[in-house]
Structures are given as C-alpha cells and as structure tokens.
Amino acid sequence: MASISDNTFGARLRRAQDIVSFFPGFPNYSPPRPEENIENFTALVTSISQANFNVSNLKETYRVMVEKRRVAYRKNPDSLEKILVPVRAAVESRFGRRSAEARSVGSFITKMRSVTLSKDPVDPTNPDADKAHSTVQLSYGSMTQIFNDVIAALVSFNGYDPSNEKIKIAALKERSAQMNAMNNDLAVLVQQVREKANARFLLFEDLRDRVQRIKSYVKSEYGINSDQYKLIKGLKFKDDRKLI
Fold it and tell me: Per-residue DSSP letters for 95-140?
C-alpha cells in the first residue's frame, strides 16, 4: 500500500500532467525562461513520473524483502529459529538429553526465542525511520549471531554428524551466510530507496518553482480573469513547508 507521502507525490504529478495538457490552449505561449517552455516543462514532468515509479517500485521490493526476512528467521516452519529444534534433538540423541552439549544448545535456543524482532518501518523514507531501522537490524543481527554461536558449539562437539542433511554443519553454515546476505541486501535497499526519494524530492522542488513562474507568466500574459489563468491558479503543489 502506498504511503500518504506517495499519494501526495502522485497527486502533484497528476496536476503537473494537467498543466501539460493545458498548454495547447495557451496561444503564443512563450515564457521568459526556457525552463518553463512547453518542451522543457514536459521533460521535467516525464522525469518526475519516472522518479515516482522508481521510488514506488523500490518500496514494493523493500516490503517483499522485509516479509521474506521475517519468514526466514521466525515465521516459516523451516525458519532459522525453528531449525534449532531438530538440531537439539540430534544433539540429545548423540550425547544424551542431560548432557552438557544438549544443555548448551538448549540455552542458545532459549536466548534466540527471547529476541524481540522489531517491526521494520513501513516507509523507509520517513524521517523517523532511521532509529527504527537500526533497531530492527540489531535484533536480526542478534539472532544471526546466536545461530553462529550454535554452529561454533556444534563444531566443538566431537561426534555431531546427523543424518538429516538440513542440520549438518555445512548446511547450517550456508544458512547463516544466506541470513547475512539477506540483512546486507536489505540495508543496501533501504539506502537506495532513500537516495531515489531524495532525487524525487528535488525534482518536485524544481516543479514547484517552475509552476509558480508559469502561473505568474500566464496571469501577466492572458490576464487574471482569463480562462488560461483560471485553469491553473487553483492547482496546488506543496511540500511539508509550502503551498503555491
């Protein structure tokens, strides 16, 4: 679902596209700056449309990756947390239920289950999302480290060699590497979303300035009571600070 911010950007883009559609009804339209002429203004609107798509597309990718990670760590029957249950059973089978090895693995499971996985920010471009994202990364990082501690313990156990391929040490190491890659990929994606969102914001700032100049030119050229001015005077292009 699009955020309020995305909906606002989309509405502003729609109004900019309306202005482009009005240009054929502006006879002898020739603003003093080239930035506001039909060709250049249309090019800006096209760039904004692409920028808006880029941000929306990356946010959807982010949403999918967030859910994929949540499933991989805790929700899935074969998740990082749940895979430790057959690991403990294999240890108990080999070394005994009351063995030091079984108690060690059991303590790691308890520790992992106690980790609170904070929710990822719905919108990573929100100014308040930085702290939340850092907290989330730390919680998933904690689970990964505990999992690595389990692997290190299993390596130290003389004789841990289960028949279940999924819980062999090599498979567990591969799982750990996958989790690290997932966390890294998500961190990179968040940065990409923010960079694209910042680029989009700058384009909309440019749009806001150009529309103000177009309004002034149309009012001057065709008159305050002209049909041309009436078409555009009520179109609002705002950010958090301004309305024009």
Answer: H-TTSHHHHHHHHHHHHHHT---PPPPS-TTSTTHHHHHHHHHHHH
Nearest CA to 62 out of 174, 182, 143, 145 is that of 182
This prediction has a pTM of: 0.81
Domain-by-domain residue ranges, the chain? 4-119+126-232
Cβ contact 143:183 at 8 Å: no
Burial class (CB in 10 A: 0-12, 13-18, 19+), 90: buried
CB 208 within 8 A of CB 237: yes
Angle CA(58)–CA(59)–CA(62) in degrees, nearest 5? Answer: 90
CA angle 125, 130, 136 (to 5 degrees): 110
Q: What is the pLDDT of residues 216-235, one digit of tens each?
A: 999 999 999 999 999 999 99
What's the pLDDT band for 132 if we cut at 50, 70, 90?
confident
Tell me the C-alpha distance between 43 and 102, whole Å. Answer: 66
Say how far apart CA 200 and CA 212 lie, in whole Å: 19
Outline where DSSP puts E strands in the chain: none
